[in-house]
Amino acid sequence: MKMTNYAAVLYGPKDLRIENLPVPEINDNEVQIKISCVGICGTDVKMYTTGKCGLEVPTEPMVIGHEGAGIVTKVGAKVKHLKVGDRVAIEPTAPCKSCEFCVSGRYNLCDEPAYCSTPAAPGNLSQYYKHVADFCHKLPDNLSMEEGAAVQPLAIAIHACNRAGIKLGTNMVILGAGPIGVLCAITAKAMGAAKILMTDVVQSRLDIAKQLAADYTLLIKKEYSDEEVVDKIKALLGGRPRVTIDACAFPSAQRVSMLVTKKGGTVLIVGVGDTTVEVPLSGTVLREIDVKGSNRILNTYGPAIAAVSSGAIDLKPFITHHYPMEKTEEAILLAKTGAAMKIIIHLN
Q1: Residues 300, 91: Cα–Cα separation, whole Å
Q2: What are phi and psi of 29, to 5 degrees?
Q3: pLDDT for 147-199, tens place per residue?
């Protein structure tokens, strides 16, 4: 019987089609994977809604999805650490390994990363997918495939918290209680953060955030000025935070992050927002606040898998909705509303 390889292909804004594509063939350094689960990410929503995300602007039809987990079905001749039947979480990148950033150990900044679900490489919301074996991570027996897929955004959150310098006793604010913001809170709590305040414009997200990790929450209303938000955060937290993470990328959030953080503190921006944003830079510089970015994942897949396997981080309550592949568009539309936390698409 001929194998099928149905995939979710984005042709342009709001034009998502389920199509049968050729089953990918592998080279000596790759593995073929039968995909079990793929998480829906905010970048999928942006790509579907606008046809672009950040600096990524596809000009050809593209398979979406980059939070994948599945079972190895073929192994390249030079692959030694994986075998057919292994359950793997897919770190969705294939860096060149030769540019100055890869050579210096910062492969997340690779000049040609061939990141999954961008113009440089197809996504993995397909029945079969091939990937460089070095970036396929074997799952422990006590992790489900759903958790394996959700490891991807957790790895992003761990890298963000590493960049932010979270440590024992940190008081912090996270602006945006979407999946990445909530995972940053869960990660920061596991790292020893003392007080975590989260903001959002959707109350249901704040309710979930409070259940999972946040000590305080603040619902942001349209009529609030930046200064009002700062005052409310200070009142709830009992002062200014040492670390503020922007996980929503709204211009107002980026301004607030710089206004509210204490002198000598850190602002970490993990959300992908507008190309140009007006921010209060002079005051930020004079107060010696470090403003940092966090791009994707850097050596945090292993720690993410270990944290979930050990019980240090529980992803089960973070995963809130499940859909079959044929209802991918419905899942994306739900994600757009903000009513869901992590949505998992089930294949095969």
Answers
A1: 10
A2: -105, 10
A3: 999 999 999 999 999 999 999 999 999 999 999 999 999 999 999 999 999 99
Non-local CB neighbours of 191 within 8 Å, separated by 6+ positions: 161, 166, 167, 168, 170
| CB neighbour burial string for 46-85, b if at least 16 within 10 angstroms, e if fewer | bbbeebebeebebeeebbbbbbbbbbbbbbbeebeebeee
Distance in angstroms (rounded) separating the CA atoms of residues 77 and 241: 52
Do the Cβ atoms of 161 and 191 come closer than 8 Å?
Answer: yes
Token representation of residue 163: 């960049």
Distance of CA 105 to CAs 95, 146, 196, Å? 11, 29, 31
Cα angle 39-172-308, degrees, rounded to a multiple of 5: 35
Strand partners, 314: none
State pLDDT tens for residues 83-127.
Answer: 999 999 999 999 999 999 999 999 999 999 999 999 989 999 999
Q: Kindly list the distances between the CA atom of residue 16 and the CA atoms of 48, 118, 126, 314, 332, in Å, as whole numbers in the listed order.
A: 7, 15, 13, 32, 10
211 in helix, strand or coil? helix
Alpha-helical regions (H) of the chain: 42-50, 100-103, 145-164, 179-191, 203-212, 226-237, 251-260, 281-286, 301-310, 328-337
Question: Is 124 within 8 Å of 50 (Cβ atoms)?
Answer: no
d(CA 161, CA 247): 11
What CA–CA distance (Å, rounded) separates 70 from 144? Answer: 10
Query: At a CB cut-off of 8 Å and minimum separation 6, what does 16 contact?
Result: 8, 9, 10, 48, 64, 328, 329, 332
User: What pTM, to 2 d.p., does this model score?
Assistant: 0.96
Total length of the chain = 348
Strands 195-200 and 216-219: parallel
